[in-house]
Specification:
This protein is mainly beta. It has helices at 2-31, 372-380, 411-420, 428-431; strands at 79-81, 89-91, 95-98, 101-104, 109-112, 117-120, 127-130, 135-139, 146-150, 164-168, 180-181, 194-195, 205-213, 218-220, 223-224, 228-231, 238-245, 252-255, 261-267, 274-277, 283-290, 305-308, 323-330, 343-348, 354-356, 359-363, 365-370, 384-386, 389-392, 399-402, 424-425, 435-437, 445-448. The termini are far apart.
Length: 460
């Protein structure tokens, strides 16, 4: 009897041990993070969607964006904005002529009412520069966006008809000494072209429902102003629903800083669509770009994304590391396209990044991971790319690992990493089945086709 009791006890103990082990294993499985989990993508900033690219079936450009600004008959100007803005100023709804470099000085807020139109003068290289400590509050609405545009007449507008919007802040960058002068020839005797500091939460104002058309004038050869430039702009700044059309240089460029943004649109610009430099580390979601085959940088190369950490010291801190989800960039296609139209993505000079749930189609070349420091970050997990779709036309240039000392010794090694994170390269035929009508410059539709392969697969 004692032996039977001992046997029964032994059986019960073994059962409890097995049950405990199973419970622990199941619990571990529940709490274990996916291998491709990225903490920044779990941030509340990111709207969790199931689709890849900037759009599902809802077109968030409707009502406020304009893909055919050449033919808009804007009202004549009735007032002029010029000189330094040294006290708080509000522009009531109307049409204004912008002349020369207009500096919004430190401690000053320039507020622009919904529905306001500002027409930039080409002869004086009209540009708005929000200096460190200044603020621009330009909050339009879906029905009444704020429009910055060319002062030229219908039919005669071109990229580079005026300067653009430059916002300078006090956040960190990796420029030696922590301070730099923004590109574009922007500076004055007071040093108001400088950007950088130590306040990553700096607030330079708000841009919402804003269109910027035909900016990007060259201050001097190879020294152009972008559509919208962010120099060390802090995370306290709001940027949402902003379109740049036909910029003579980059549409959007970030030099350091931490500002985040959603719902950005670029169409027909000359140089890079989205350009990151000098330690930029903000979060970005729902971005779309469409290239015009006729517009490209004749003196350089035109890329969808171009990202650098630093030209001189590739590993200097803070590192460039944008965190991006739900981006769509549509290239110029493959019909009489200049070789100056190059990569969908060029990551180089030590840039780190998180790039997820995005679509890049219609480009001459695809993805380039250039330089050892850039590739090393993918290998050690401080950079990651996952769930992205690429389509390009030139054989052997769909995925490129290069630089003086590449991190990935062979393209096959980079390809293995690429595929292990659920990234894909597809054919032009398959790319044609993703989006509704993405290549029509004056009336594109980037929403997903019925049954699109991009309608699922996003993870955060």
């Amino acid at each position: 009897m004692k032996q039977k009791r001992q046997s029964l006890l032994l059986i019960l103990m073994m059962g409890l041990t097995i049950l405990s082990a199973c419970s622990k294993k199941d619990n571990d499985k529940e709490t274990e993070e996916p291998k491709d989990n990225v903490a920044e993508l779990s941030d509340s900033f990111f709207e969790k969607v199931v689709y890849l690219g900037a759009f599902g079936t809802n077109d968030w450009t409707a009502g406020w964006a304009n893909f055919n600004p050449q033919n808009v008959e804007y009202p004549a100007t009735t007032a002029t904005i010029e000189g330094d803005i040294t006290a708080d100023r509000t522009l009531t709804k109307g049409t204004y002529l912008l002349r020369g470099f207009v500096y919004v000085k430190s401690g000053v807020t320039l507020t622009i009412a919904p529905g306001t139109i500002i027409r930039g003068d080409k002869d004086t290289k009209a540009t708005i520069i929000v200096t460190r400590g200044g603020k621009l509050v330009a909050n339009g609405t879906t029905a009444e966006p704020i429009v910055f545009t060319s002062n030229r007449a219908v039919g005669s507008r071109n990229p580079g008809d005026w300067g653009g919007i430059i916002i300078l802040g006090k956040a960190k960058n990796n420029i030696p000494g922590g301070e730099g002068i923004i590109e574009g020839g922007v500076d004055d005797a007071a040093g108001d072209g400088k950007h950088g500091g130590t306040d990553d939460a700096d607030n330079s104002g708000s841009l919402k429902y804003v269109r910027v058309e035909y900016p990007g004038i060259a201050f001097a050869p190879n020294n152009e102003i972008n559509g919208v430039t962010f120099g060390s702009v802090g995370s306290g700044t709001t940027v949402d629903y902003v379109q740049v059309s036909y910029s003579g240089d980059d549409s959007f460029e970030w030099f350091g800083g931490t500002v985040s943004a959603k719902h950005l649109v670029s169409i027909g610009n000359v140089d890079d669509v989205f350009d990151f430099d000098n330690g930029y580390s903000g979060k970005l979601q729902f971005l779309v770009g469409l290239r015009d085959p006729a517009n490209f940088d004749a003196a350089g190369q035109s890329n969808g994304i171009e990202a650098d950490n630093s030209e001189g010291q590739f590993s200097t801190s803070p590192r460039t590391r944008p965190v991006i989800s739900n981006m769509t960039i549509v290239g110029p296609g493959n019909n009489n396209v200049s070789e100056k139209h190059e990569y969908a993505n060029l990551w180089r000079r030590g840039a780190k990044f998180v790039l997820a749930n995005s679509i890049f189609i219609g480009h001459r070349y695809g993805l380039d991971i250039r330089d050892k420091e850039t590739g090393d970050a993918l290998k050690d997990g401080t950079s990651i790319m996952k769930n992205n779709i690429y389509q390009s036309y030139v054989s052997g240039k769909d995925i490129v690992a290069d630089g003086v000392t590449p991190s990935f010794a062979t393209v096959k090694e980079l390809q293995d990493y690429f595929e292990s994170k659920n990234n894909k390269t597809i054919t032009a035929t398959d790319a044609g089945n993703l989006l509704s009508n993405p290549f029509v410059l004056t009336a594109p539709s980037f929403v997903l086709k019925a049954g699109s392969a991009a309608s699922a697969g996003a993870t955060f």
